Fold this protein.
Amino acid sequence: MEETVGKLSQWIPRMHLTKFSDYALRVLMLAAAHEDQRVTIEETAATFGISHGHLKKVVLAMTRAGYLHGIKGRNGGYTLACNPKEINLGEVLRITETDFTMFECVQDGQPCPILGPCCLPSVGRKAAMAFLNVFDQVTLADVALPGSAFSFINTARG
């Protein structure tokens, strides 16, 4: 029994977001760190080791959502479109995450013989809401870092 308790006390819960959400949060943090300075896709890709293709999609989605201002062209890039205090991380995740369903039985088209009396789907919904509630209490300003935290851009810009 003691051995089991010891293992549980060291257990750390893990929740996984999609890469798209992870990248969106990183892009917003990077833009916040560089305030009104334009940040390029190339700088972002080099800073985080992320492909240009993924980043273009993320920047486009954050631009469409009104969080970033995209600058097209050869000297393009992106900047924050609003104050970091106005960017709620829960809202960002609701845009970037397509599915918070925890159990296969409640996904579209999945038949389950006990779906009617089963309580797991409601527990999963409560857990997802609790997860999002934590992010609802946090703005980009709360997690912003100084520009010096992003070493690649500082080195590249000299």
